[in-house]
From TrEMBL, chain A:
Protein name as it appears in the record: VPS9 domain-containing protein
SUPFAM superfamilies for this protein: Alpha-L RNA-binding motif, VPS9 domain
InterPro entries attached to this UniProt entry: RNA_MeTrfase_FtsJ_dom, S4_RNA-bd, S4_RNA-bd_sf, SAM-dependent_MTases_sf, VPS9, Vps9-like, VPS9_dom_sf
Organism expressing this protein natively: Aureococcus anophagefferens (Harmful bloom alga)
Protein keywords: RNA-binding
Tree of life domain: Eukaryota
Biased composition (Basic and acidic residues): 307-336
Keyword Iron listed: no
PANTHER family per UniProt: GTPASE-ACTIVATING PROTEIN AND VPS9 DOMAIN-CONTAINING PROTEIN 1 (PTHR23101:SF25), RAB GDP/GTP EXCHANGE FACTOR (PTHR23101)
Lineage, top ranks: Eukaryota, Sar, Stramenopiles, Ochrophyta, Pelagophyceae
From TrEMBL, chain B:
Name of the protein this chain belongs to: Ras-related protein Rab-21
Region ranges (Disordered): 32-51, 188-208
Family: Belongs to the small GTPase superfamily. Rab family.
Compartments reported by the entry: Endomembrane system
InterPro entries with a match to the protein in the record: P-loop_NTPase, Rab21, Small_GTP-bd, Small_GTPase
Main localization, broad class: membrane
Its membrane topology: Lipid-anchor
Presence of the UniProt keyword Nuclease in the record: no
Length: 623, 226
């Protein structure tokens, strides 16, 4: 950025801070800027200081908290009077410079939405680049996707009156740090990484599919993706490896993470991080709506409603979107409540693990993992099978012992119950990422996997949503395919908790569809509330599983059951997982009467389906 | 004292009001009585703002609820909704296998739904045994005038199978707090009887027979087994 460059030129001659007259009360630099009218707000003052644009005797001062004499001569470097209402704008500005095609699409009147706007820097920047304000409905959907409170965005919407009766009573939660300005990761450089970080909440291909499928062409998604993948790779590489040196403890990991460019949270950490804090997403750019007759993309485009818009549809939509946004707002609040017990993120866990006080635990973990790996080295045949059969119990014993160890150590037990249980999960994740291959081998059952897959493929040839009493308007294949994508990721994840997480995301997506549709219905009927329960969920979930074609589904479930902390499976995650088990059971045992079919017709269809599947498989792998 | 975690499954035919019960229970008494004329979401928004606090996307089907037991202990219930359609009946055991308690819901205006409860009870006793605490809830007491399940029959039946019988109305928010509180007390008593009060916090231990070794160097010992 220009202002940074100029600032750093000047900073070549560092002066010793000579501050006069200790007799007078000194003031903070940022307060000084504010009181002298050099900055319109405290946050802008801070931003200016951090950007190195505030000069005392021609030297940039970079600490907003620096105490200075109230009469000292400070000045703000020219041209650095912030272009945008906050530093966030500068970041987006940098991103737009880096990816001019996005800037071009904004200048051409593209729509931008800033999810998680706090001071509105992104929005300001986008608008100054020519962007239009997004439609409320569109924003509501996307806000929901990214767990952002719609209330916090109303001033940036085209229909800010979506909630005119209820003025936001509480101060904006975003502004209070819920969606930290810097994504909670400290100040990011202005090198456009933020834009990439905007994609970090979800695997890029899912996001891309989602955006493509929804008609949002995001130019340069591919570029963001490449960058993201690269950084994730780097982040993964930087995971401390206590096995790297074959003996001594690895050095503390803190500097191992590359300080630049800023690293978006790696996907491997997602499960734990999701619980710890909200995802961040901002500045999505949408090209001009393809249909000129319908300038604002309506929620109906997503097929989440069963009717075309009617006279009262905007109101109903707003309410539906609002209900949904409210629901997710609550979920987020709940996640916060849950986080109160100082939950530990995977990263924090690893950092703690690398501290000298954890040496004993690290020793145990190393010994355990190396012994497992060593034991199976070159082990073949029956001996291997036998050893594999013991593996789940061995791991369970180790985790239980490790848990007891954690409870005994003051540095861990001080974390409280939540902290301990998250440490236990993180430990499991760490160990399973090392021995996961063997562990999977222990439960792998190719025969049952193949049987399940054949069965599902055969059934999927003729079982329709109607057979399961799933209402047609709920079967938005775009959304359901996204849910299936989430489920399929199960096979790529390594740690049991990560696999379960895939199921949870899949289930959440389905519940979102159901709740949104019901909210729409109930607001039309005037009933106060309506939410999807298990009666609604299970059929559609079965339908999703049926068509998901998850590789090695059976083994994946067995793996989770064999190696995941049983206590963790008592939770919401466990509920989702048990529903998956249940869906599989249903698909394996389903009879004609259970799907509203005639016995003979069912038998015939199934036989035909199986024959077709076998034929297709003989001919070659399915596309 | 550790928090005792209990898993409770909700069983009952479709449309008897399982989901409403769950939804209403999570909101507790803070929700204005809903025999008020239906309000638009907008008008009751201030209530929603508060009471919706605990409701997540999934939480008409899965719910974590913290409550205090009489003995001063805290209990955490995970309440699992199940699909009530007959076609999913066979999947029941997957959900209730390791449950500590079950709330069997029937609709007092629907005799069939009560028959279904009998079926669940038989199954639960057969598969889970006496381990599981059962509460039978006659829901929709606000529709007393169209009652189809004779009161005496329901009460006698519940007594005969060692279950507690309660009347609830999700609509009027009646009986729910008490039903879950009473069920929790019984679950806690059972667990304390079978395992001693100290083991209350670890539902998983039931299944996996992991012994938590007190010795801090335990992990090293484990090495000998592999």
């Amino acid at each position: 950025m220009t202002m940074r460059a100029s600032a750093s030129k000047r900073s070549t001659s560092l002066q010793a801070a000579t501050i006069a007259a200790p007799s007078t009360t000194k003031e903070r630099l940022d307060s000084l800027l504010l009181s002298r009218g050099l900055a319109p707000s405290r946050s802008q003052a801070t931003a200016l200081v951090k950007a190195g644009a505030v000069l005392l005797a021609a030297t940039p001062r970079r600490r907003p908290g620096q105490k200075l004499h109230p009469d000292c001569e400070i000045r703000v470097a020219e041209g650095s009077l912030t272009r945008y209402v906050s530093r966030g704008g500068e970041k987006l500005h940098a991103a737009l410079e880096r990816w001019p095609s996005i800037a071009r699409s904004l200048a051409g009147g593209g729509t931008a939405a800033d999810f998680g706007a706090s001071t509105g820097g992104y929005t300001d920047c986008a608008l100054k680049h020519g962007a239009r304000r997004p439609s409320t409905a569109w924003t509501a959907i996307m806000a929901d996707e990214f767990d952002v409170d719609l209330n916090d965005m109303k001033e940036y919407l085209d229909e800010p009156d979506f909630d005119e009766v209820e003025a936001p009573a509480a101060p904006s939660r975003c502004a209070s740090g819920e969606l930290p300005f810097d994504g909670g990761e400290g100040v990011r450089g202005s090198d456009g990484a933020d834009a990439a970080a905007a994609f970090a909440g979800r695997p890029p291909d899912i996001l891309k599919a989602r955006l493509d499928a929804s008609g949002f062409g995001v130019e340069n998604v591919a570029a963001a993706e490449r960058r993201l993948t690269l950084e994730q790779q780097r982040a993964t590489d930087s995971e401390p490896d206590i096995f790297a040196d074959g003996g001594e403890l690895a050095a503390p990991p803190a500097p191992a993470t590359p300080p630049r460019p800023p690293t978006p949270p790696p996907p491997a950490v997602r499960g734990l991080d999701d619980d710890a804090g909200p995802r961040r997403a901002s500045a999505f750019v949408k090209k001009d709506a393809p249909k000129p007759s319908q300038p604002s993309t309506s929620a109906a485009v997503f097929g989440l409603y069963d009717r075309s818009p009617e006279a009262d549809a905007p109101t109903a939509r707003r309410e539906a979107a609002r209900a949904k946004a409210a629901a997710d707002r609550e979920e987020r609040r709940q996640a916060e409540d849950a986080a109160e017990g100082s939950q530990l993120s995977y990263k924090e866990f690893l950092t703690r693990l690398m501290q000298p006080s954890s040496a004993e635990l690290v020793g145990h973990v190393r010994t355990f993992v190396l012994q497992i790996l060593g034991k199976f080295e070159g082990l073949e045949g029956d001996a291997r099978t036998e050893a594999l059969a013991e593996l789940p119990a061995t791991c369970a014993q180790f985790f239980a012992a490790a848990e007891a160890h954690l409870e005994k150590r003051p540095e861990w037990s001080a974390l409280g119950a939540r902290g301990l249980s998250s440490a236990r999960s993180a430990l499991e994740k760490y160990v399973m990422s090392k021995v996961g291959g063997l562990a999977f081998e222990a439960v792998r059952n190719d025969g049952r996997d193949a049987e399940l897959r054949r069965r599902c493929r055969a059934l999927s040839r003729f079982v329709t949503p109607g057979h399961l009493d799933v209402k047609a308007h709920l079967c938005n294949e775009v959304v359901l395919n996204i849910a299936r994508d989430e489920l399929r990721r199960m096979d790529h994840s390594r740690a049991p908790a990560d696999k379960v997480d895939c199921v949870v995301r899949c289930a959440s997506m389905i519940f979102s569809v159901l709740n949104l549709a019901r909210a729409e219905n109930s607001s039309r009927k005037g009933t106060s509330e309506s939410r999807a329960g298990a009666d609604d969920f299970l059929p559609i979930f079965i339908y999703v599983v049926l068509h998901a074609d998850v590789p090695r589904l059976h083994s994946n479930c067995d793996y989770v059951e064999a190696f995941h902390n049983p206590t963790a499976l008592m939770s919401k995650a466990g509920y989702c997982f048990v529903n998956l088990r249940s869906a599989i059971e249903f698909l394996l045992t389903v009879e004609a009467s259970q799907i509203n079919m005639d016995e003979d017709a069912f038998a015939a269809a199934l036989a035909a389906g199986e024959a077709a599947v076998d034929k297709g498989e003989a001919a070659g792998p399915r596309p | 004292m550790p928090i005792a975690r209990f898993k409770v499954v909700l069983l009952g035919e479709g449309r008897v009001g399982k989901t409403s019960i769950l939804l209403r229970y999570v909101k507790g008494e803070r929700v204005p009585a809903s025999d008020d004329p239906p309000t638009s979401p907008r008008r009751d928004a201030p209530h929603r703002r508060y009471s919706d606090r605990q409701v997540s996307t999934l939480q008409a089907s899965y719910l974590d609820k913290r409550l205090s037991l009489r003995a001063g202990q805290s209990a955490s219930l995970s309440i699992w909704d199940t699909a009530g359609q007959e076609r999913f009946h066979a999947l029941g055991p997957i959900y209730y296998r390791d449950a500590d308690g079950a709330l069997l819901v029937y609709d007092i205006t629907d005799f069939e739904s009560f028959q279904k409860v009998r079926k669940w009870v038989r199954e639960l006793r057969q598969i889970v045994g006496q381990e599981i605490a059962i509460t039978i809830a006659g829901n929709k007491v606000d529709l007393e005038s169209s009652r189809a399940v004779p009161e005496a029959e329901a009460l006698d039946y519940a007594a005969s199978v060692g279950a507690t019988h309660v009347y609830t109305s999700a609509k009027l928010n009646k009986g729910l707090e008490d039903a879950f509180a009473e069920l929790s007390e019984r679950m806690a008593t059972r667990r304390n009887e079978t395992r001693g009060p100290g083991a209350a916090g670890l539902p998983g231990a039931k299944r996996s027979s992991i012994s938590i070794v007190d010795d801090p160097v335990a992990p090293k010992k484990k090495d000998s087994c592999c």
